[in-house]
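Quick illustration for those who missed Monday's session on complexes.
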Amino acid sequence: MTMRLDYLSIFPGYFDVLDISLLGKAVDNGLVEVHAHDLRDWTHDRHRTVDDTPCGGGAGMVMKPDPWGEAFDGIIGIEPDPSVHVIFPTPSGIPFTQSAAQELSTVERVVFCCGRYEGIDHRVIDYARTMWTVHELSLGDYVLNGGEVAALAITEAVVRLIPGFMGNPESLAEESFSPGQERLLEYPLFTRPVSWRGMDVPEVLMSGHHGRIAEWRREESLLLTRDRRPDLTD
Ligand SMILES: COc1cc(COC(=O)c2cn[nH]c2)cc(-c2cccnc2)c1
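Prediction with JDE bound:
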């Protein structure tokens, strides 16, 4: 299965980065197909206008619906297709989680709509919901200038879960937030040299005693989770 990823943005250059590193490898071995589109290609005025002042007043600008609608027609099509997943990264979205990444990794087609300014005319999202499966997703309680960086983060979280993408799938199974794992934060990791700038690797990890090592790691995860993410221990 090849996943097709489309990105709609007024800064499509953000997605050139997908040609390098692991994601580039996924493109090379045909696991994913990436297409970035400039929303301004669907404007018709001399200034290639994509925004206008908010109805009802208020600060900032809102992205006009017309270019989005025409871009949807050209990129996705004019027939409804619930198998197409359209993602709007937005601070007002539902929290993006590893289980959402897991679900999206089985989808054949994902279209990222990257908002700028104060946001996108709400009718664009309402229209998309009549046509495709829409996800308004938040990465966290902070505001970015646009959805591009969030789209890249969601892309990485999803593509790395596509079967055949990661060399050693067993490492995925052990990760925090993986299905089946308790929701615990990762224990501290160490590698050689055993002594570095006067700091030594915890002895238990060098003992070769797998039972004690597992116990130490679990305890460290519990302590870290209790300290940093008490919300996960509910
Ligand atoms: C679609 O509408 C958007 C999208 C974004 C980009 O996404 C994020 O910032 C984000 C996604 N997860 N967490 C944060 C930002 C705004 C925005 C900008 C300024 C003031 N208010 C809202 C609007």
